Amino acid sequence: MTEHRTFCRFCHANCAMIATVEEGRVTAVRGDPDDAMYGGYTCIKGRQLADAHNHPTRLTMHQQRQADGSFVGVDSETALSDIAARLRAIVDAHGPHSVAFYCGTYAFQNSAGVGAAHALATGIGTRNFYTSVTLDQPAKVYTVGRLGTWGGGVHSFSDADACIFVGNNPLVSHYAPPGGVPPFSPSRRLRDRLDAGLKLVVIDPRRTEVARLAHIHLQPKPGEDAAILAAIVQVMIAERLIDEAFCQRHVGNLDALREAVAPFTPKVAAARAGVAAGDIVAAARLFGGAKRGAISTGTGPEMAGQGNLVAWLVAAINIIGGRFYREGETSAVPRVFTPGQGPRRAQVEPPVRPWGEGYPASRFRGLTQLGFEMPCNVLADEMLVPGEGQVRALINIGGNPVVAFPNPEKMVRALAGLELLVSVDIRMSQTARRSDYVLAPSMCLEREDITNLSEWWFETPYARYARALVPPPGEVLDEYEMLWELAKRMGVPMPLAGGPCPMDARPTKAEFLDLMSAGCRVAPSVVRADTADGAAITYPDQAAVVEPGADNGVRFDLVPDDLGELLAATLRAPTADYPFRMTSRRSAHVFNSSGHQYAALAKRGTANFAWMHPEDMAALGLADEAAVTIASKAGALPGLVKADADMRRGVISMSHAFGDVGRDAHVAAIGSTTGRLVDETVDYDPITGQSLQSAIPVRVVAA
Ligand SMILES: Nc1nc2c(c(=O)[nH]1)N[C@H]1C(S)=C(S)[C@@H](COP(=O)(O)OP(=O)(O)OC[C@H]3O[C@@H](n4cnc5c(=O)[nH]c(N)nc54)[C@H](O)[C@@H]3O)O[C@H]1N2
Ligand SMILES: Nc1nc2c(c(=O)[nH]1)N[C@H]1C(S)=C(S)[C@@H](COP(=O)(O)OP(=O)(O)OC[C@H]3O[C@@H](n4cnc5c(=O)[nH]c(N)nc54)[C@H](O)[C@@H]3O)O[C@H]1N2
Ligand code: SF4
Ligand SMILES: [Mo]
User: Fold this and answer.
1) How far apart are CA 264 and CA 403, in angstroms?
2) Which residues does the UniProt record annotate as the domain 4Fe-4S Mo/W bis-MGD-type (predicted)?
């Protein structure tokens, strides 16, 4: 028996762990009490890691679909050579865009997953590269850049005096955007900060775990966040709760912002959102009256149809509040492995609009690539609709489009029409079962990884390099190995940040990560060499002190033209005449569609209840766990209701990525897919393509 330091990759938080290995198998994991960042913290999901690695449903052979629909296990050589030959033939016949890649959440959990997939996609030359980012919170990434960004970074949580969390529940999700609670022991971190005097505002239609700790909880009607945020801006400007010196120096058009939000008085916003006007004013005063700390949002408001407005107004609140690190201060989140970070300067970095003209365009809805990825919104249509560039092959890495995308019936039809569907998954998921091939990947404790995902939350230059602790079983391969083997067999290059990936002999993971991260603060192989025992390391000399700003003349553009118009339009928008709004939420014991198979997690339920206020249930004559049909204008799903007095009345709350297409009879065992309530061709954001995934107008009837 041996013990090894490592980190969990069940989710992005990457908790430090000690794994016990006996006879080539992981038999136990526990939090690493000596790790300064995590202090021994783990969650219920991560504690299943040993079970997950050894689980009977775990694939150790690649699966090849037979003519009768059954699967047989095949070795790597057979699977990769056949897949590569078929991809080659499709590209030769139909051009590079006929091959698409989709990177789901587990492509991100492998530190080389998305990088390797993008390198292969670039080598092939396809514009059809998709990731779960555009199902998640794309407006955050793409809208903020349009106002300009502050080189010194936004205030982080650890020294905040006041924070506003909008539709974010980090105590369950272990997720927070910059300024929010880092996901390591989030509950302890938040309580410690509150004890030290932090003032907290939470805006969420449900009284969530984090809302219970807030000084002010606004419990609005879902989908009305833009009005509330506009009113907060209005109060902050009117009551001069802004950083005037900062605004004078760095803001271009404060007056334009004042005008844009003028119609959204606290009274107007309160009426739209169904909250007390006095609470909006109090929230603005509580936040605006402090000096440090940021407002941030989670998935809730981004998915609720106003993603761009919300991301814009949140950025505007941080800007007028001056919630940034200044010259001489230590900037938050130094990020050891992220390439391309220049010096942190006390200046506004010019706005960039990473989409639209000059970016590869989809054939649908006028949407273009955002940065380097095509919005998930168009994937089903790109597969279904004939024409130049129609997608005929999809490589799905660590994702589950059948249950995670809107409009699952359409997704299933689109996947069925492909010439080749390959999934990389540890189990026969809803999407894997519909694939021609399922490639079996190594699981986290069988492979090397760096903390390039979690480092977005490290407030010090902390880094880890995990070793493979046990040999990969059967035929399994690391995702980067599979993708390299496909590139090699197809005869295409894999361009990486540090130059082309060698294609004569397969690089080691450290070599691959070095090339992928070229230009980062400390190369992965250096961290590897510095941490022989797998423990963490901190590089104090890499802490980023904010340097003086250049006089670059750049100021924040507080009101990008199209957003000002969009805000005005929300005032005119009628509210739908459906009695309920369906909202999204996370469940603590699973990660999207992952984890339902593990005994300890399954004990907490494998179906997703439709949570409602008990008085709403009584009004409809529904008992706990009664079967209902939940219907929107686009579709309907079966559900089981459950009472939760913490809900706002008129709101339903359900987790996504449960259920399956064609298996409604099993709803009590597997739940159902909330994506069925949305037609992605109608309800989507015109800039990012994000489909409506929360605040969906619905009715509920007893089944
Ligand atoms: N209605 C609605 N829809 C939503 C959302 C919502 O809130 N509401 N949320 C959206 C969000 S934020 C996201 S990120 C997407 C998620 O979208 P996806 O990423 O497509 O969905 P997941 O369920 O996370 O898929 C993960 C897959 O990886 C597999 N897996 C598990 N472990 C491993 C591993 O070690 N290696 C590999 N290769 N695979 C593994 C799992 O079995 C699973 O099939 O869903 C989006 N869809
Ligand atoms: N245990 C667990 N952890 C996870 C996941 C999981 O499935 N399980 N999924 C992971 C993924 S992919 C992601 S992206 C992150 C997401 O992390 P979070 O964004 O923190 O996700 P949630 O916990 O769903 O919190 C979203 C909150 O938004 C609220 N909300 C819904 N609609 C609205 C609205 O219109 N307005 C406002 N103001 N609030 C609204 C919901 O009630 C909910 O409390 O979590 C990650 N972590
Ligand atoms: S929070 Fe995430 S990384 Fe930490 S133990 Fe849980 S699943 Fe693993
Ligand atoms: Mo996500």
Assistant:
1) 37
2) 1-57
